[in-house]
Amino acid sequence: MTHLATVGSTNDWLTERAATLPDGSWVFADAQTGGRGRRGRAWTSLPGNVFASVLTRPQPGEGPTQQLSFVAALTLAGALDSYAEAHRLTLKWPNDVLLDGTKVAGILLEKQGDACVIGIGVNLAAHPVDSERPATSLAAAGIAPPSPSAFVEDLSGNFVRTRATWRDHGFAATRTAWLARAAGIGRPLVARLGSEALTGVFEGLADDGALQLRLDNGAVRAVHAGEVFGV
After folding, report:
1. CB 51 within 8 A of CB 45
2. Strand, helix or coil for residue 181
3. ω into residue 94 within 30 of 0, thus cis?
4. Structural contact between residues 45 and 150, judged by C-beta atoms closer than 8 angstroms
């Protein structure tokens, strides 16, 4: 575990060292000056929050890299369970954790050669008030936040366990666990796929992790990449 006072981006820090660092290498920072989320969005780095990344390399028994998104989401929700009641925490496809229905944490996967860097941002002590999407924090939800270092220790240990479940029991076990915590199952959603917008009902996950959206005409569309919003 590497702890930095300040870094541009924990993902970039690991990516730059991916050729030499082993699988399972973690880094976290007290502050980021160039944090980012999915689709290049800026990630506001407020004091007291978590800015961490882990480097992974394919291991025997593991599935496609994109499944790590679900492994990471379960890892993150499991770590947050120590502070918030489980019923308050849900998972939003593909990469967010919600607290009381509002985003409290996000995940960013980036490939570098055979490695995949998983970035994790968690609003423990504070949240941006002017973000493109509504956000919250543990503190704003009335929960005493842990220190970032203590949380990252919990996170890294939990990642070993959830990753082992994925590796030893296949994606089916991970998929089932993710669906048990999914936000919006059975409810209308809008899926934005670039310039295309689809409206339908969120029916679950396909065997490969794609979101299954039942359209108005009864057909089921598999959404492999994009963003979803509640209607």
Report:
1. yes
2. coil
3. yes
4. no
Contacts for 218 with CB less than 8 Å, ≥ 6 apart: none
- Rg for the chain (alpha carbons), in Å? 17
Return the beta strands (E) in 146-195 as ranges. Answer: 188-193
Q: Which residue has the tokens 């925490």?
A: 89
Alpha-carbon distance of 189 to 202, in angstroms, equals 6
**CA distances in angstroms from 4 to 26, 51, 84, 115, listed in the order given:** 11, 10, 27, 22
SS3 call for 12: helix
Q: Which two tokens stand for residue 72?
A: 């990471």
Q: Per residue in 8-40, pLDDT tens?
A: 999 999 999 999 999 999 999 999 997 665 555
Cβ(177)–Cβ(211) under 8 Å?
A: no
**Cα gap 2→180, rounded to integer Å:** 33
Three-class HEC string of 145-179 = CCCHHHHHHHHHHHHHHHHHHHHHHHHHHHHHHHH
Q: Please name the residues in contact with 164: beta carbons below 8 A apart, sequence gap of 6 or more.
A: none
98-131, pLDDT tens digit by residue? 999 999 999 999 998 899 999 999 999 999 887 7
